[in-house]
């Protein structure tokens, strides 16, 4: 694996842990796709630093369980500000 990819995977995991960030927020911050973030955390990082990968996956699982709530709140907010 190339060095910069390994470094990016570690940086992404640290960002997720530090900021309790979602995959989408992380992808935007690093200028990569959501798929890349997911691959870095689940596959690549597991080979580099399994402990860090496990910590990041815990946060991603929590975010995954809560995403339907966030989506509902975003929709509610959208329609509260919509002019009829």
TrEMBL record:
Molecular-function GO terms, alphabetical: DNA binding; DNA-binding transcription factor activity
Query: Quick check: keyword DNA damage in the entry?
Result: no
Q: Which NCBIfam families match?
A: spore_III_D
Give the species.
Answer: [Clostridium] fimetarium
Keyword Amino-acid biosynthesis listed? The answer is no
Q: Where is the signal peptide?
A: none
The UniProt entry, under InterPro entries, shows:
Spore_III_D, Tscrpt_reg_HTH_DeoR_CS
Alphabetically sorted, this entry's keywords are: DNA-binding, Transcription, Transcription regulation
Record's protein name: Putative DeoR family transcriptional regulator, stage III sporulation protein D
């Amino acid at each position: 694996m190339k060095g910069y990819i390994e470094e990016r995977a570690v940086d992404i995991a640290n960002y997720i842990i530090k900021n309790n960030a979602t995959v989408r927020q992380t992808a935007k911050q690093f200028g990569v796709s959501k798929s890349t973030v997911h691959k870095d955390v689940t596959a690549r990082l597991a080979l580099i630093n399994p402990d860090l990968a496990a910590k990041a996956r815990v946060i991603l699982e929590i975010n995954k369980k809560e995403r339907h709530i966030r989506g509902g709140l975003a929709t509610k907010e959208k329609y509260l500000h919509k002019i009829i």
